[in-house]
Amino acid sequence: MTFSPPAPPAFADRTPRQKTATVITDGLAPANLVVALLLLIGWHSTHSFTGLGWGLLAALFCGVIPISIILFGVRRGELTDKHIRVRRQRVVPMTLSLLSVLVGIGVLFLLDAPREVGALVVAMLVGLTTSILVTLGWQISLHNSVAGGTVMIMVLAFGPWMLPTALAAAAIGWSRIVLKAHTLAQVLAGTALGGTAALTFALLR
């Protein structure tokens, strides 16, 4: 049976539990996590504002342009909303986002970006590619794919003291289930899929 998430009620009509889930889903959306992670790894790569600049440049191709593609699709009525509830609508914007990330990799390579930043962007490319392949047949949780990868990469870069960030990933999964955007299986599979990005980062950094 194909999973088809229902349209959510207006925010004012949601229960306190649903409102909390909405705030988590929106605040910790994939694009937000991608931008934040790139800035943190950018800083970590040089421990200076130069590294932060590299992170900002990478965030343009990996976060800003992809979310702009989605919002443009929403305005045109081609996508349900910024979280793209309907699986079949996800493939085109995800593919366009993949192209943006590819261009970003080329730019970072030509400009001799720090190795750690380049490794992260390639890791994001791998994660996005695997997500597209799964999305062709199943509505996996992209929120948790990005969240799971983010947590693992943070631990790799900054050490085990970042393990508590896993609570944020768990909260995101909870929010997606409460909003009936995904099943538990889709959330868990998404989190596991984030490991492909983390493994790539670990091998290339």
TrEMBL record:
- Could you list this entry's UniProt keywords, alphabetically sorted: Membrane, Transmembrane, Transmembrane helix
Q: Where are the transmembrane segments?
A: 21-43, 49-71, 91-111, 117-138, 150-172, 184-204
What name appears for this protein in its UniProt entry? PAP2 superfamily protein
To which species is this protein native?
A: Kitasatospora camelliae
